[in-house]
Amino acid sequence: MNYILFGPPGAGKGTQAKKIVEKYNVVHLSTGDMFREAKKSDEKISALMAAGKLIPDETVVEMVQKRLKKDDVKNGFLLDGFPRTLNQAKALDEMLKKENIKLDAVFFISIPHEEAIKRIAGRRVCGCGASYHIHFLKSKIEGKCDLCGSDLIQRVDDKEETVMERLTVYDNQTKPLIDYYKTAGLIVNIDGAQDEKNVFEQIAATIKNKK
Length: 211
Ligand SMILES: [Zn+2]
Hints:
By secondary structure, the chain is α/β, with parallel strands linked by helices. The protein has helices at 13-24, 31-41, 43-50, 57-68, 86-99, 113-121, 160-183, 196-210; strands at 2-6, 27-30, 77-80, 105-110, 123-125, 131-133, 187-191.
C-alpha cells in the first residue's frame, strides 16, 4: 500500500507517520530525512540548505525518484513532506506511472491555524535537551527546566511570527494540492485537532477499507 501524508506544521504528522510505519510495515519516505542525508554528500543541496533557501522542485523530484527505485519500497511507502507543490504532485504522478506504482490514499490532516500556533508557539526547550510546552507539558517552575534549572527558551522556528509565515506558505502551496488529490479521488480528510489516538484510528479505518 502506498500513501501520502500531508498537513500543516503542528498537525501531528510526525507522530502519525511513526504509527503508520510501525503498524503497516511501509517505508517512511520523508523528504526532510532525505535532505539531511543528501546534505552530507551533495554539495549543491548542502549549499542551498546552509543558505536557508528552498530546494528547487526538480532537485526534490530527482531525489524522490531515485529513492522510489530502491527495492525496499516494493512493500509500500508513506511519503511525508512530498509532494509540497502542484508541480511536484504532477511529477510524482508521472514517475509512479512509469514505475507502475499506484497510490492508495492521501491523508490530509488539518487543524485550524490558531490550534497550530498554540501547539508550536507553546513549545519551550532547554539546552540540556529537555522539552516542555506552556499548555500541555508545563515545567514545575515557569520558565525553568525541571531537570537542570536552566532558563527555558523558545526556538526561532517556534515563534508565533515564524509559525504564521510557515502557515501562509503552506496554505498557498498546498491548497491546489488538496483539490488535485480530491479530483483524483484519493484524499482522506482527517481532523487533526482530535486526540492523536483518534487521528490514528481514522487513518487505520481508511487503510482497512482500502485493503
Ligand atoms: Zn535542562
